[in-house]
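Batch manifest, entry 17 of 40.
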Amino acid sequence: MASSTSKNLSGKTILITGASSGIGRSTAISFARSSPSSLKLILLARRIDRLHQISQEIQREVGDGVKIYVKQFDVSKPDEVGRLVEELPDEFREIDVLVNNAAFMSGFERAPDIPQHVLRDVWATNVTGVINMTQAILPIFKKRPDGGRGDVIMLGSIAGREPYVGGALYCASKASIRAFTDALRRELVSSKIRVITVDPGQVLTEFTTVRYNGDKETADAFYDGYDPLTPDDVAEVIVFTASRRENVVVADTLMFPTYQAGATDLYRKK
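Output type: structure tokens
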């Protein structure tokens, strides 16, 4: 990372949801590498064992200059979100960057056959969970001088821009947050609070395996002939957006691998 990145992130506290794997995990590591002597990381996810592993991995690589707090946490539970800030250790409460990464993807259900439990879980995580997390952290940002200061980074998806067959529920959830994000940016325009969206296309993560009900062989076959983005690719862009000087807002980023031009515009190598 460039030295300006390290300088602009120096001393900041970064909160990442869904940090136990995939893009969340890579984002935590990328932030730590960007400013390895003064950063504070709050890593939240349901799999606490994974968070401890990531914490140890970061400290082995960059040393103990990066302070890390991990917590078992489920963004889909409003009571947990509501207690989060007050339960943080004092030295981690002055959050500067919120990365709303946690998300849930269902299978390929289509109306009218979408089960109620799938509808509930997708919406509770991808929509109300993201909104509740944003509402929990924004007061910290808004109390700062000159109208407030901080970054809200939404991990979106091409699915929020282009609906596709078999993805109605997931696409609807991501489109909902895209509308919320666009409105939030306008509502906070008089402050120095930056509202940022990073929307990837195809990324090789555990998401695909989950979507195929744990069938890794079928999930891996989905990418045959493709060279998808990696979680590290997306993490680098997230860190880049957070590390710009205060007056620069990388408001909206769409990322594709080279073979992709849209949600369903894909080229498969022979």
